[in-house]
Specification:
The structure is a single chain. This protein is an all-alpha fold. Helices cover about 80% and strands about 0% of the residues. The protein has one domain (about 5-290). The protein is built from 13 helices and no strands. It is globular and about 50 Å long. The relative contact order is 0.23.
Amino acid sequence: MTGISLALVLVSALAHSSWNFLLKRSQDQEVFLWCLLVATTVLLAPLGVILFWKFPFGIHGWLLVAATVTLHTLYFVLLGRAYATGDLSLVYPIARGTGPLLVPILAVVLLGETIALPAILGIAAVIIGIHTLSLWGHFRELAGSPMTIISNPGPRYAVLTGLTIACYTIVDKLGVGQVQPFLYMYLLTLGSAVFVCPYILATKGVRVVRREWRLNAAAVVVAGLLTFLAYGLVLTALSISRVSYVAPAREVGIVIGVFMGIVFLKEPFGNGRLLGSGIIVAGLTMIALSP
């Protein structure tokens, strides 16, 4: 993995965990997510126009944009439900941990990528670290009843969010081959804002949207810009590096997310989360050093 790709992923991980922290602190997570999409779309409209004028693209690009908008719409709805029913330090690792398990497999099968042995070991370490962090203290329970993890709504929505992440990551690797990365990011933000709108209005109503904006307008704007930056940097990394490396490497943000949940939200902390975080960082190091 190149130094540039690693730097992009690390900055993205910090931005990503930061906007997830702001999301968890909000009054209504689903409404907050939609508001940040709308705010980002409006604030960055001039950038979107300039990029669209400078970097035109064809029908294949539009098809991939449509696919990622559909998947991201589902992602935002599922993520909002996950945070509404579970802790940041539990939901974030599960949601982010499913992708690294599936993306390298899909990348090899669908995209024909190859993975060096150190990277394979690093990916395995990231996956082990994620599940050590999120499931510590529950291994005996899960051994006796494997379906326990999806019996609670927070983890269940987190698993579904992770499956969606794996799908859109593969689509987006193809997408940035057709569309300039930050233009691609703007279009998926715009599309997601439009498609999530009917769901929010039908389930929450205008009154709830107004209340969330009144209480958290500044946080919405900051989170929206962080969202755009976080995934825009990932898309840029995808355009110059293998998706099978980028997807697991960006999960170092889990360590930051856990830290924020513990320090700022006073969520419980234990040896499992410390051990899991260390294993994730070790895995990232192996991936970073892989050719």
